[in-house]
Amino acid sequence: MKRLRHMDEETTYWLSYSDMMAGLLLTFVLIISFTMLHAKMQFDAKENELMIRSDELEDERATVAEQKSRLDEQAKMLNAQEEALAEQGEKIAIQEKTLREQHELLNKLEALMSEQQQKLDNIIGVRTELIEELRNEFGNSDLRVAVDEKTGAITFDANILFDYNKATLTASGKEFLSEFLPRYVDVLLSPKYRDYISEILIEGHTDTEGNYLFNMELSQKRALSVAEYCLGDNSKILSKEQLEDLRSVISATGRSYSNPVYDEEGEVDMEASRRVEFLFRLKDEEMVREMIEILSSEER
């Protein structure tokens, strides 16, 4: 009886132990299952997170690629702008060099213009004084001559010197020149003005009747007749020194009817057009005039 009880107690003990172990095993299984499930859930979550992150990385990569493309494009534009700036810099350097050269040239031209202006002012002053002295010399004389107030040209009618359509000096013409020329030379070739005189011109002029070449020949012959009488070796009008001095600056030419004289109605004054003129030119006068004309044209 006791033995049976003992066996029952032993059996009960092992059953309880088995139940406990089974329960414990079940608990472990549940724990493992739960752990695996939790791990699976975490894995899935991580996988989803990685997928999302992968997509984000792809987007970021695409963005970076786009930004890189933009940066490359901007770099190209910057390079192009740098090249353009370098080219503009070269052009600016060339322009600056040109401006400097033009400025230097302008300074030289201004200095030259100032110098020429000074010469012109001096020449104008000399011409004004010469004209005034010629007017004083011939204004109240018995010689019928006209002194141009602007140029100082001395004009007298050809009728005083020549018969109509002739080129041989008349007796009265020779007498006229013998009185006129010494007084004219005393003024122009005086020590006060001699260094300024570059040329004295004898010009013959005709009226407009007849053809041009006939009048050209007539006007030239008349100018040469005056020059021959005044400057010939047998001339007694001037002293030897005056004659040599005058020969070094004088010339004679004919102008035909290229410069006729007009009356108040605008018609050709035939008698006044038949004339002989004595003109003078001052040294550097033409050069100064040409220089001023050049500078004036450049300023325009």
Mean pLDDT score: 84
Structural class: alpha+beta
| Overall shape | rod-shaped
- Largest sheet report: 5 strands, mixed
| CATH hierarchy, class of the domain at 115-299 | Alpha Beta
Radius of gyration: 60 Å
Roughly how much helix do the residues carry, as a percent range? Answer: 55-70%
Structure report:
This protein is α+β, with helices and mostly antiparallel strands. It has a domain at about 115-300: 60s Ribosomal Protein L30, Chain: A (2-Layer Sandwich), CATH 3.30.1330.60. About 70% of the residues lie in helices and about 10% in strands. It has seven helices and five strands. The chain has helices spanning about 1-140, 160, 170-190, 210-230, 240-245, 270-275, 285-300, and strands spanning about 145, 155, 195-205, 250-255, 275-280. A five-stranded mixed sheet has the order 1-2-5-3-4. β1 and β2 (about 155) form a beta hairpin. α1 crosses α3 (about 170-190) and α1 (about 1-140) runs antiparallel to α7 (about 285-300). The protein is rod-shaped and about 190 Å long. The mean pLDDT is about 85.
